């Protein structure tokens, strides 16, 4: 009896927590609609707070109060290192909540439209306009 009890302890392996289930594939994400915004029910006014948060984010990212305190002004030549670092920060910044105006588009009805950026993907920006 004692030997059988010892064997059963050896056979029991402590269960390690299983790593999370495998991630969804791109096709599954598309089928679930994770990259789509609903076509109805979105109001421009409900995203104005998102825009205000984005403005605060950009002020912190670019250190606007520090630039004003130091008396920095954009130089006439574009070879300034400070200007280059600011441009890099702007290029890498998150645009969710930014107020964006369409300047150029394949569809002429989109040109001139202005709105808040709701979704930013690799090749597109989805905005919501006031009208």
Q: Based on DSSP secondary structure assignment, what is the total number of beta strands? A: 3
Instruction: Determine the structural class based on helices, strands and strand pairing.
Output: alpha+beta
The best one-word shape is: extended
- Would you identify the regions where 5 or more consecutive residues have pLDDT less than 50? none
From the N-terminal CA to the C-terminal CA, the straight-line distance is 82 Å
- Averaged pLDDT, please? 84
Short description:
This protein has 131 residues and is of the alpha+beta class. It has five helices and three strands.
SSE layout and pairing:
Elements: H1 2-11, H2 26-32, H3 48-62, H4 64-70, H5 81-92, E1 99-101, E2 114-120, E3 125-129
Antiparallel strand pairs: 1-2, 2-3
Question: How would you explain this protein's 3D organization?
Answer:
It is built from five helices and three strands; from the N terminus they run αααααβββ. It starts with a helix and ends with a strand. The chain has helices at residues 2-11, 26-32, 48-62, 64-70, 81-92; strands spanning 99-101, 114-120, 125-129. Helices cover 39% and strands 11% of the residues. The protein is extended. A three-stranded antiparallel sheet has the order 1-2-3, with no helix packed on it. The chain is an alpha+beta fold. 5% of the residues are buried.
């Amino acid at each position: 009896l004692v030997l059988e009890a010892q064997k059963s302890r050896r056979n029991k392996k402590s269960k390690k927590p299983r790593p999370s289930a495998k991630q969804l594939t791109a096709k599954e994400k598309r089928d679930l609609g994770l990259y789509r915004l609903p076509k109805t029910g979105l109001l421009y006014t409900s995203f104005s707070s998102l825009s205000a948060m984005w403005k605060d984010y950009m002020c912190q990212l670019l250190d606007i109060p520090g630039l004003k305190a130091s008396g920095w002004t954009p130089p006439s030549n574009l070879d300034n290192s400070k200007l280059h670092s600011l441009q890099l920060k702007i290029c890498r910044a998150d645009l969710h909540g930014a107020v964006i105006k369409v300047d150029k588009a394949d569809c002429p009805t989109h040109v001139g439209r202005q709105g808040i950026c709701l979704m930013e993907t690799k090749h597109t920006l989805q905005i919501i306009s006031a009208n």
